[in-house]
Amino acid sequence: MRSSFAGSVYFVHTQPTVPVARPVRIHRCDFGAALTEIDSAEDDTMARMVMKMWPAMGLALLASMVAAGCGFNDGLDLDDTVEVRVQELSSFCSVQVEGYGAVDVEEDYLPSVIACENGNAPMEALKAQAVAARTYAAFIVEAERRPLVPTTRDQVYDCSHAQVEQRHRDAVNATRGQVLTHNGRLAAAFYVAGAIPSTNSCRAARGDRDPTGTEKWVTYNQGRTGSGVRGTPLGSLANPANRGAKSQNGAACLANNGWDYKRILRFYYGDDIRPMVPPNSQCAEGGGNPGGGDVCSGLSSGGSGNNSGGPSCTDSSQAVQIMPRSAWNARAPRYNTPSHTPNRITVHHTVTANGVADGANEVRKIQQMHFNRRFHDVGYHFLISHDGTIYQGTPENKVGAHVGNQNTGNLGISLLGSFHLSTPPSDAQLSSLSRLIRHLSDKYNIPINRTQVKGHGERAATLCPGQQVMSRFDSILANAKADAVCEGGDSSEEEQVDGQDVASYRYVRVSGVDLAPNNSDSPLDGYEVDAIYVEKADGTVVNAARVACSPGVQNANAAIGASDNTSCDNRAQTAAGVPPGADLIVELQEPVKKGDVLYVTQAGYPVALSECSPNGTAKISLSNDGSIWKVLDTTAQGNQRWTLGTEHFVYDEDDEAEGPNGGGLEFIVPRAGHWYRPDMTFKVVASDPRIVKVRYEAEHDNFHLGTSQDRASNFEEGYTYEFFGERVIFAIGLDANGNEVARREVRVTITDFDGTIPEDRRALPYYPDANVDSAMAERLATEGAKCQETGGPQRCSPGNNSYSLGRCWAGVKGALRRAGINFDKLQGHGPCSAYTFQLSAFGFRCNADANPDVLRSIGLQKVDIPTTEAPRGAIISWNKGCIGYHAVHGHIEIVREPGIACSDFCGRIRGNAPHCASVYMPIN
């Protein structure tokens, strides 16, 4: 067996053959005709090293290659357009291999590659190798647009020393369609042979055998996420696609220790790496997920779920194949346009010849036409040819050019042809248009209605997209709304009137929303499902009978039958994993009716067990025909139970989009009524497409907790609480103009890290106005605004443009005494001495924070309010040196009005410094 730098693994139980020294011609870049070649008399180790660098080189080193004359002329933006193109993978069913022609990826290419590259590894290591090899091949096909070389130039496809065995095919089938992604985008799949570990941890130690000298490239990223993940020097460390390099010897060691392939991949590439089947993959069914795949059999057929005589229904959101720019030989854009978040769709026609067979050539003509008009690129995001093929135009995350002054957030879809006269679009075009609208609706939370999806003429003064399209527009949207697009059968059976009572439900759908909460040791990704069943009124239990649809779901069949996820050790076999964007649809043995109790469980053991708490957040929905769905919960976590009443059997038009409570926003985390530690994470589902920003606030008006504009992360934001107890958190959805369009609140309890609520850190109860002594607050504000020591003159009236004499504490003491607060009681309670307490503003904060009971006895309580938002009558005490205040004495002041506070002068409150300032309010 050969030693290898980046492909084959060197195992301790085999003896490598002696490498033959021979000249190797290495193409350093093959993006165009200009090639730089290296002649080497080394073995093929260096060739293998360089060639396994291609994924990151394509993303991270592209600019330097162009400068070196490598001929790459796509001109795409490295950080987004290339990644978008790679993310929108084509069906990837076959690849062109030099000397072999078209080769089936899953049945032929990958089994041969892993047999040649890593054939003697344990099964879970083979699975990890299959994912890495598939990722590499996907990159070459989509980014470099060339055939794969069957040697160490790319990945070894045909070799003399290895034979494809069933175990190699099993490893490929178990990971069918999966590529490595980070935040939904393709990651660079570096791997090298690595050292032969001698440690139980499978990390190579100093002195371990490293025959190929490749251990220096290996990364160990267990427990790391985001920017904390270390890349490998094999690629640019600045590129986010570089998530490190896997050791094949180390992977074999981990597999022998009982690790599954996903955990192995996280060990090297980070805890946030995900093996993922691309949403539009057409060749992933049949492997890895028994009963799953991309085909949803029997939905909307009105039958029992078998396929005999009924239509075959394909989940429309999964059935969209988009041809990338490389497929129609797109030219580079003339310049970049700004990024945007899609929130609506506009349909066009190109006003060109109808029925043209060569759609790719037509799209190239449209691009040239738009170049002639000085557009940046083809102005549409998608174009649909006569045969229904969908072509990618401007990437979805970039602003297009298709509706004057209305392009930001607007996705443009254009049908190739002219439809303003008597010729209608082809049935294939109309079908693809409906499916594409549904795909984009699911991807960007765009409601399918006549407000968010319009023809060009409904947004501007034009006949586009023509009467032949607009006369069919309601039908186009109705087909797009359906969860399943069926061939055969009576399509009228799928229709249902909004608001009509539903007698029963046959299907339960679990849709992955978020990975959080995320237990990194879990063998499952996404929302874990143990069982789905119904308890009838007579006490009988009806289990899910079969999996009707499970695109992208791991171990789907584990969700049917009785609950059996009874321990942390067997969850890999007894639970299904539903990643974000995937759907698990099960059919029940008997229909669900009013009065029944529906259960969707994650575990039969206490879900609070920290060592194996279940992963994920999901949306739970019901349907009687697989076409229209009633949403029960958009942010389900833990074991769920619903007693189904009348309200659950009426479908409303906005039910799917808005969730059960309406409003366009729903919290993913935190969950109402739950207890949380101080380090909080906020996430929401924003179903209202107008929402481009979410601001999080606490129960105090304008108490700002954070703001996020990142829809891809579900507007994730973090905040650390200093004071504990019951709290209210508001999520406020804002549109592009900053206007509030949605609001949601959630009540939670914040505890210390040990799960307690210390008395000295207990926040005021909700709506603190109920406990605040408003009369005392008014007296404090009035007296504080005088800037007057006891018996001294009033310095601050009218209170503007004053300055400090270094006697802030003396001014505040005078106001406290005049208002009737006996603050002297604090001076005898340390840690600061009575002398320091009377001398220094710092002394007040020192003793007040340490003695909350004494503080309350004099009518004051520390509250969790930003200093900049402290209300009239609040006392703010700043620590020594805090945001520029005195390095020995600190500062103290009384709020006269929001933003203005007084002591021996009045001035603006400098800023919010929660770690070195305290706010106190008078209480009853």
UniProtKB/TrEMBL annotation:
Q: Region labeled Disordered — which residues?
A: 202-235, 294-318
Residues forming the N-acetylmuramoyl-L-alanine amidase domain are: 330-466
What Gene Ontology molecular-function terms does this entry list? N-acetylmuramoyl-L-alanine amidase activity; zinc ion binding
GO biological process terms, alphabetically, are: peptidoglycan catabolic process
| Entry superkingdom | Bacteria
Which spans does this entry mark as compositional bias, Gly residues?
294-308
Peptidoglycan recognition protein family domain location: 320-454
Family the UniProt entry places it in:
Belongs to the N-acetylmuramoyl-L-alanine amidase 2 family.
- Protein name in the entry: Peptidoglycan recognition protein family domain-containing protein
Task: Write down the species.
Answer: Lujinxingia vulgaris
Q: What is the lineage of its organism?
A: Bacteria, Deltaproteobacteria, Bradymonadales, Lujinxingiaceae, Lujinxingia
